[in-house]
Task: inverse folding
């Protein structure tokens, strides 16, 4: 299995993506072969947030030329990840009917988002 650093390449920062941060949606450029489940697990592990939803889009690389030489930019994938802004501890019932809450702490935002690398 690939590491989370291999799946999440970098944040995708535009005016629209910055406006969606207030509603808990963060946009990343991810590995084109990554699945939604892998993206969810990678974001949860890297940023300690609870992911509610992952939407992905595939983009084909644009055709570019330099003089007489033609070439293509690489294909890439964008993921919009919605995080839980009010995370509650996971509650489940063990064998015997005892109710247990997980002690896992989730953050309510991704502070590292938008930091120049």
Result:
């Amino acid at each position: 299995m690939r590491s989370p650093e291999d799946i999440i390449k970098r944040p995708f920062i535009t005016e629209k993506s910055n406006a969606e941060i207030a509603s808990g949606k963060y946009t990343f450029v991810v590995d084109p072969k990554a699945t939604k489940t892998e993206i969810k697990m990678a974001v949860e592990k890297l940023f300690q947030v609870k992911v509610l939803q992952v939407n992905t889009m595939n983009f084909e690389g644009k055709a570019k030329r330099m003089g007489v030489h033609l070439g293509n930019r690489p294909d890439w994938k964008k993921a919009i990840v919605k995080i839980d802004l009010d995370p509650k501890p996971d509650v489940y019932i063990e064998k015997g009917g005892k109710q247990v809450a997980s002690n896992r702490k989730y953050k309510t935002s991704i502070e590292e988002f938008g930091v120049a690398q």
Remarks:
- The chain is about 20% helix and 35% strand.
- The domain at 4-101 is CATH 3.30.70.330 (Alpha-Beta Plaits).
- The mean pLDDT is 89.
